[in-house]
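Thread title: Can someone regenerate the structure for this chain?

I was given the following input by a collaborator and told the matching structure tokens would be attached. They weren't. Posting the sequence so someone can regenerate them.
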Amino acid sequence: MAALVALAPSAHASPCGQHPWCDTTISPDRRAALLLAGLTRDEKVSLLAGDDLEGVYGLPGTHTGTSDGIARVGIPTIHFTDGTAGIRQGSATALPAPIAVAASFDPAAAQLDGATLGDEAKRKGNDVLYGPTLTIVRTPLAGRTFQEFGEDPLLVSVTGVAFIRGVQAQGVIANANIFVANNQEGAGPAANDSRPGQIVGPAPTEGSRFTVSAYVGDRALREIYLPPFEAAVKQAGVGTVMCAYNRVNGIYNCENRPLLTGVLDREWGFRGFVLSDYGAAHDTTANDDAGLDFEPWPGQAYGVEQVDDALASGRMSEASVDAHVLRYLRTLFAFGVFDRVPYVEDDATIDKSAHAAASQQVAERGMVLLKNARGLLPLANVKTLAVIGAPAARFVTGGGSSVVTPFSSVTPLDGITARAAEAGVAVGYDDGSDPVRAAALARASDVAIVVAADYQTEGIDRACLSLECPPVYGDQDRLIGAVAEANPRTVVVLETGGPVLTPWRYGVAAILEAWYPGEQGGTAIARVLFGDVDPGGALPATFPQSADDLPTAGDAMRYPGVENVEIYKEGVLVGYRWFDAHRLTPAFPFGFGLSYTRFALAGLHANGASVSFTVRNTGARAGSQVEQVYVGAGKKPPVTEPPWRLAAFRRVDLAAGGSAQVKVAVPLRARQYWDTKTNRWRTLPGCLAVRVGALRGRICP
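Best answer:
Regenerated them for you:
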């Protein structure tokens, strides 16, 4: 991370000047109040909305959003950018997809990811980064699953907090999005027409994110969907929050006063400002009353004409305009924007090699080994390799606001070929368009590696969970089957944005989930396959045996909704909680991941606040494992509870024969539920079971 601050951005004069509010010895609140008092009404109104309609296309020299400053009083122009996997502004460093970051179960990797993006955002002249996405994976069909941190609120919270700290340590303001229960893009028959290169996917016909109303019970909101945002506010001090397109319990998110003012502001004490997603503000009066402070895409609700009309008619007061502008200004003061030189776009100041190294490191930490029959991996004593599949020769990523044009990229084929050459291994390649031909190459090789990928995009959900939805890369399930039949020593490398169906898993020797691994993905994949690094990641979302097992399956009212109404009937039983509660066996469970070595656990000790145990690497090589602490529901829980919920985790890296004493805090919230009768948190009664791997214990009050 130190390398990320080695180069200073280009310097221009500070915009603040000699005004009273430029005094850095007084508080951000006081400075903002002084500046507010010096603004005319028209100047205040001009700060409520953005000033650029064209930056959303991600072209060089543009920004996703711009708020023009006011030179008279030293308010700087503020630039906003997309960037959960790379800065969408011409070419940029392509980081692994957020789902891969979550799979690392490593806050340090998440912080490195955020720091890299934050550093690059400012060197491209941006002040606010739209990330992280703190949406829970409710259904893996969702088009933006790749942009999220998984299905568990604790994992999403811990990863999100670390990411925000990384971004904001670079002097860039992070944005927690998308608030809240924005769990789908929408479904429709055009889903299989999604292709890389589209700005967003084809329009859905049911359950569109723009219009759907998600009816979510208070327990599910409080226990599943809100905690990551609460952590972002309370633990990470995030500077901005973005309200989403959809409605929650009948009210548009950006008009939802109970959530924006009641929860975010008054309960959590959020000190930043709330901005809308692009086009998510519809009603000037309702947005104002709810607590929306800024509309980055101008003209719909907070444009000058709309606000002037609302003020003239009495539907909006000057006092409320002052309140919104005050929050905006206070945030800029708190993050030092007035007291530094403006960030200027200059790609020449980006340390591309350091950022590429960070991208590779995060990718390696996030790879998950799902199967390794007879220890085929890491590759050894191999003379010939067959690399098969069109994705092997491409840079694979998702679509929409997270799409990235990389400065450079290493494909899986490039990475494997280069690493194989070091080991004296010959590599043959087939794009897999003819399974018979591909099978012939596999049969003639010592080991076959099939690289398979899916395609996810903002704008529309996937039509199914197979690799053929959408059919960007042909019938990959059939290809894998043909190759595995020809050569039982077949490795499948998945580059997917989330869980997929794996009907061929019993017929292949090894499966490595690499996600969308970023611009250095090929090198990272090769290093894992050849054993230069241990995979060591764990699944942040459940891989089902069948899509029929998903909590949203079989009921259109659950998903994608009927006539824009959707009911979250599963309540708190999201992801693995659903599978556990209904005793459904997944293909690969949440938290699963293999290592190239072996680990043993012993000596579990639990009390009400912490759990400790010993981890020993009993294998012959260094390795990594994610140790996960789960807490049970108790014998007679007063409400519907999952059998287990993740309470803490720690990724442990050990040399061969090494051991470590691990102690993790078990937060009180992990033993609580939201009481809908009293609207407060209550602790589950009695002693609760606790498990770490095969170890069992109890936590008592």
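The radius of gyration is 25 Å.
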